[in-house]
Structures are given as structure tokens and as C-alpha cells.
Amino acid sequence: MALRLPSHDASAHGASAMFPARVKAVLGPTNTGKTHLAITRMLAHASGIIGFPLRLLARENYDRMVAVKGPRHVALITGEEKIIPAEAKWFACTVEAMPLDRRTEFVAVDEIQLCADPDRGHVFTDRLLNARGLVETMFLGAETIRPLLQRLVPQAEIETRPRLSELSYAGPAKLTRLPPRSAVVAFSASEVYAIAEAIRRRRGGCAVVMGRLSPRTRNAQVALYQNREVDFLVATDAIGMGLNMDVDHVAFANLQKFDGHRPRILTPQEAAQIAGRAGRGMRDGSFGVTADCPPLPDEMVAKIEGHQFEALMTLAWRNAALDMTSIDALLDSLAAPPPRPGLSKGNDATDHITLAALSRDPEVRKLAQGRARLRLLWDACQIPDFRKLSDDSHTRFCARVFAHLAKEGHLPGDWVAGQIAQCANTEGDLDTLMARLSAIRVWTYVAARADWMRDALRFQNEARAAEDAVSDALHERLTARFVDRRAAHLIRRLDDTAEELLSAVTRQGEVVVEGHPVGHVTGFMFEPDAAAGNGEERKLVLRAARRALQSEMPKRVTEIETASDDAFALTPSHRITWNGAEVARLRPGPTPDKPLVEALDSDFLEGAQKERIRARLATWLEAMIKREFAALDTVEAKAAEDGALRGPAFRLREFLGLVPGGTEGEVNPELRQKLKAIGIRAGRFALYLPEVLKPRPMALRAQFWALKADCDVPSVPGGGLVSVPPPEGWPEGFAETMGWVTAGPVLLRLDVAERVAGELGHLTRRAPAMLPTDVASRLGVKADILPAVLQTLGFRLLPAEPLAEDAFGPPGPTMVSARREERGPRHRPGEHRGDRRPQGDRRPERGPRPPRDAASATGEAPAEGAAAPAEGEAAAPRPDRGPRPPRGPRPQGDRPQGDRPQGERRDGPPRGERRDGPPRGDRRDGPPRGDRRDGPPRGDRRGRDDRGQEPRSFSFDSGPAKGKGPDPDSPFAVLARLKLGKD
Q1: pLDDT (tens digit, 9 = 90+) per residue, 899-916?
Q2: Which of 16, 165, 289, 750 has its Cβ near the most Cβ atoms within 10 Å?
Q3: What does pTM read for this prediction?
Q4: In sequence order, what DSSP letters do the residues of 85-109 get, joined into one string?
Q5: What's the CA gap between 384 and 399, in Å, rounded?
């Protein structure tokens, strides 16, 4: 073994004197361990250099060498990065950056078959012909180079290594059917992005590897794959150059690539180089096609599986002995023909093209005088064009670098620092960051030339920091766009194991599976996480949730069965909620008070579980109905003993405690008293139970009314309100059904309207009376709308008569009187009942009055043809109008004070109750029952009952006095004529 001397040159000369130099070629397909063998052999020597085709590979193997020999003795040399410790002995390099002026015991070149590449092949061919180790030289590559290698390097020993595992063709497969640990290969950035996005949606995500990535970004992406955070890799053909990953299957998404000059089909050797990434070590691999790629031809498949390919016919070559006497001489030497058979001119490289362009610039020619300047120009032309912008920007950049170096001897620090800072921006999308990364790679290459900078170390650090920042940002963007860690992990767990998943449901209802939130469970409904989107990812989340909720849903069914009634509630959309979550809906039942309960559909509930939920909710609803409408049960029990009471009680059951429409036409005083005794009010505007006007029963009635009407529940005024403006959006008939009386511009609560109307009717039963001062406040209305409200309740205000000019004293009070209208057919809301009254034939009929139409004071029709009193005139003469023919000669003063409508029309003061008595009942039994004029006007109590009938209007004139007017000689007529004459 060679002695280790301090001087590399001394060691090399000693080794060469002791051992003959050995040249060896290790050839074979992928996965034969060639690279591993070369590194092992190099580290066994005292010094060595190995060249790789990619910066990524150089960095990867540098890390492996550092792990064995330590960072003090291992160097990394690439175009953009140079790590050269003072004691470095082993060098990992790109082929272009191999320091051939350094004499080492061992030299190796990987992927030597790239000698045939028309763009970069001349560099590999130069290393094949000229790079030699003092002790050992090793070339690693494919069998296709064997004939030319034997011709060009006849002393080389050739060793063929077989593949360690089998490689077989699996045929076409959809992206959704690719097995885990697959790599999908495409040949453009747009294809890579599209496939990666599709895999993210369907399979949870993938890592992305492209040649434009920096080593830092590439390593971070590969780590995602190697650490099994994702099971798929989407890459360009960059993975074909020795990138060793645990890939089991390689799928081609395309067979056509752009080689920098034109699109072309992959050769079998190129396809085999890529497909050979499948199966590492002793594990077999497979390859196939996916997406829109057509199946591989049988001939190509046979060659790839058998590793049998046509041998290379020529290798690319370019003259390395350059003439630096002038630009033209340099160009001529670059264009020199190959010296021997088997070599051919490749494509002009970028440095050659750049030099040719600059040679036409007179300023460059003027500066490039002498060998040193020409060498400097050639070095500037060799700056790599990583940006590949297809314009002259790279040529102009090289010219500027050369001009600064030729004139100033170094590059301006401000210019370099500004350009590096501009490239360090981490904002932008994937394409922007990749373009910025390509630009920073150019400056990293420039900063690595210590002889071009005054403060080279500073700029190298700044360029490296900028590249790292952009690389990290690019990795984050790639991961955010193409990786769904949650979906990838769940897919792996769902596919790889039948064990119960580690899952939990938080108190907030969040479902966590294997540490990943997948959605929320509300009641018995599961809502996938919003980030799941649609399609495959949503199906995956549901699949994971179904496994996770297998034990959770039965627990919830048990909880709802044992929950207290306070946990349930109804919504305006007729849903039943449990602790705020909707679990069931209401359906119309056979009767309004017996709606049906239907549990909501859920993918996580079985039929028996849904029935248990329905039964519990039905029990709760039945108990609530019984509690809120307990008054109905009480009334029905009391009415059971009296046949006359059972009918009204049954109707109240049908209408849940409130039947809109007045009751005068069908309820006589005796029945009214009986109804009141058991808690039923037969009033001017409705037959009702006062208990159903309370907030909770009213809300439940509104719920059932809207359920029958197939609409959302209108909002019901809160408790304590006496009057409200008509709410917008209330359906027709809803106000009356809920116990609100339409009174002009407002709605009055039924019990308040009944009470106030009853009191006013009692006051005005004989003549206009002074308006009580608290009427407006009791009705909850303002004074300016009080006249309109009273008008619709059947009363009108009489303004005070002004004092005469010679009179003194306070103004007269505001008076209120019952409205008198023309008689017409009485029509009640709720049903047609005119034919039930035996007195109907004896009452003058009048036409129906429009709803809510307030009659004017001067437009009132006189009763029985009598002249109407003037506006504001007191109605005192009315008691002296004489006897009414149908009622007999009963004096007015003997008229019973308990006017029929009073006691039963209101729940007012006891005064009205005391006046209800047998006299009113006697009047009920008399023939003129329907024609009393002393009560408040009832024709204005309009509304529609649930059957849509028009409201009845009630008359206040006697029936039989048809055609008979007032006595013209009566004192009242004389007084009226005198007053009219005075006016």
C-alpha cells in the first residue's frame, strides 16, 4: 500500500513507482452497486477524486464520504459550491469541476456512457481519455460503451456486474391504481405539476424532484418520500442519474422529451436508465406507463427487461488543447476535428456559443489582448447558463463580467451584493422561485471564483444564504401545493392495517384520526373538514371517519336516550335539536297537535338506532305538547259532562286553544256564562283559552301552524307586548290564529282588545260617553293613531264641541261612541252561520263592509232613515227615540245595564260582569235579539278564520221597523231642525 506522505505529489510519485497504474471499467445496468464499489475503493486509497454527472449526486455522496472520513478530509467541488478543507484528501465533484491538476491515487468517473451526450459528452470523453489516478482509475457506466472504451482505452480492465434484482414490465395503470412507493416520470415542469396535483387530490400527495432544484430543496423533497410522509414521487429524468431511493415502481407519464434542441422519443437505453430506479438492493422492481402515455413497445420492453441495448457508435469530443494566442485562434481550436475514429463533434456547448458571440463585439476584442486576457475571457464564457432564457442576456452578462475583470481586476462589490440580494427574495409562486433559484445559482458560481472577488468569502456566504432561503421557500411551496400529509397518512393506515385507528372526538365535536383532524361531528351528522374539498380526498376522509366513529355513534344514541328534556329544542325550520345539533325533523301528523318525528338520515346510523332516536324525541314532544296545552285537557274534562260545552271544547282542541272570529251569533248568554265558568272565553273576536296567549304556548302553536302551512315559523312577538306593528312576512291568517287582532295600523293582543272593547261598549251602550284617559296606554298605541284603532274595533271619537264666543270655561272632553252602520247581512269569520238565526228574516240586511275601512264621521247612515245628528253633537236624544217596534214599548230607562256584549266580551272590571244577568238573557230569548242598538258596533270585528270565511258584520238596528222613519213632530226632530237652521 502506498505510504502517506505530507505532500500529495510525493505520495503520488511514490505510489506510481511502486505500483503500475490500473485502469478499470465496471459496467452493468442500474442497481448493480457500481457507485458504492467506487467510493469504497477511493476511500481505501490515501487520496482520490470521483466525478458525478449531477451536482445533486456529488452532494449526496459527499455526505456519505463525510460520514466515513469526517469533514476535515473530504472536499466538495461543483460549479456553484466549493468546500475544500486544508487537509482534504478525498474529493466529490461534478465531472466539469474535477481538479485534474491535483495528483491523487484514485480517480473515478460515474455514468461514463454520457460520453455520447451531444451537449456534455465532450467533458466525459476528455475525462475518459485524460483523467488518470496514480494508482487506480475507475470508469462506471452502462454496457453500451464497452466496444468504444476497449478501442479508446485498450489497457482498461472491464468488469461486468449483474443487476441485484429483477426488473419487469407491469403495463399501464391509472394514477389512482399506482402502487405505493411509485415514481412517476414526466419531462416538463407543467407535466410534473399537473401529475403532482392529481396525485395530491387522489392519493394524498407526493414529493417532487427536478433537475432545476437546488440540492437543499431536492434533499428536503426526497426526505418526504424516504421518511414515508408520502408514498409517491413525481420527477423528471433527473432521477435516472443515480439518485438512490426506495422506489418499487416507475411509471412513465410520457415517452417524449425535449433535449434542448428538439422533441424526441426516449431511446431504450434512456428509458432503462430511468426505469432502473425501481427496485433497490435485492428488492425487485417494476415499470410501466400511466396517465395519457401509450404502452411501451414490446421491443423496448424486451430490451429493458433483458438489459440488452445497441452499443454506442461514437463519443462526443472537443479539443482540450486550446490556442490562447487570439480569439480567432481559440475559436479555431475549439472547432478542430476529432483526432481518431470513434469520436465525433458534438453540439456546440454554451461556452463556445458565448465566445463566438462576444468575438463579434469590438470592445471585447479590444480588451481580450494577450494570453492572460484571453484566458480570462474564456473563463467568463464558461459561466453556466442556468437560467436558459433563450435570449442574449447570458451573453451580455458574461461580457460585463469580463469587462469588469479586464478593467478593474475584480467585480464591483456593490453590483454583486445588489444582485445577490435581489435573488434572495422568497416571495412568488413555484415558477418564480425556480427562476430565482436558477439566477442565484449563477451568482453562486461567480462567487465561488475567489480570484474574481475582493471579499470572496463574504459573497460566497451571502449567495449560499440566498440559495438556502429560496430553496426552503421553494420546498415549502412544493409541499403546500402537492402534499396533504393528513390524507397520505390516513391512506397508508387504512390500506396497511385492519387494526382500529387511533381516533378521538373532542368536546367541540372535532374528529381526530391518527393525530389528523378530519372533520366535525354535529349530532349524528359528520361534516368533513373544509380542506378536504371534493372527490377522492373527501371519500378518504369519510372512510377514515367511518372507522373512527364506529364506537362514537352508539355512545351518542345512548346519550340522547338518557338526556333530559332541556337538551331538546325546536327550530324555525321544524328541526329538533339536541344540545344545539339538529337530529330530527317534524312532519305534519293526522291532527295539528300530533306531528310526526323523523330522525335525520346519517351514514353512521343503522335503522334500529334511528328508531331509538325517534322514539325518544317523540316522547319529549308529546310531553311538551301536554304541558303547554294542559288547559285544553282541563277544559275537555270539565266539558265532558255538558253536551253544550263539548262542541266548543272540541273546536278549541282542533285549533289548539284559539278559534278566530266573533261568537255572538252562536253563543247565547247562558252558554257564554257556562263557557266562562270552565275557562273558555267567547268574545267579540275569537273563542279562546287565555292560557294559550302566553309566550310558550303561542310559540308552539306558531310552530304547528307553520308546519301545516309548509313554511318556516314566523317570528312571534315576545311576552308582555300589548300591540305591535304588523310584522313583515307574516302569512295571511297567521295574526288572527296567534291571537292578534288587526286594529288599523297595529295588531292588538286578543285579550286586551276584548277587554277594552267590552268596556267601551258598556260605556256607549246608550249614548256617546267621555273617552277614558287610559285607553291609549292600555292598548299600547300612540294618541295620533288611537282614532284609527278604535274605528276598527267598532268605535269612533267625537271631538269636543267648541265653546260659543260668549261662553267661558274649559273645553269639552273627547267623546267616544259606538259606530252605527247600515244594516246588512251579518257575516262572521270562520263559517257561514246566517241561516242558523231564526231572527234573520226579521232583520234588515246590509252589504258587507270592506275590512279595516274606518267610516267617516259624516258618512254614517242614519238608523231606520232618521236624520243623523251633526258632527260633535251629543247623542243625548237617542234614549227618547221612542219604542222599537220589534221589542215592544219598553222604556229606554228600563233598558238592562248589563248589555249583552259586555260581560262575555271582555275580562274587564267587575262592573261589566255585574251587569250581565237575566235581563240580558231575557233579551236573548226575545225576538229582537239580533237588533239591539245599544251595544258597541260589532260589524267591524273582521278577520279570517282558518277556513278562509269573510268576516261577519253586525247590525245595531231593529229588524221589523222597515220603512218607518222618525216622527217629524218629535222634540228630537224639532231640535235637529232648529240647530240646522241656526248653522
Answers
A1: 444 334 444 444 434 444
A2: 750
A3: 0.59
A4: -TT--EEEEEGGG--TTS--SEEEE
A5: 14
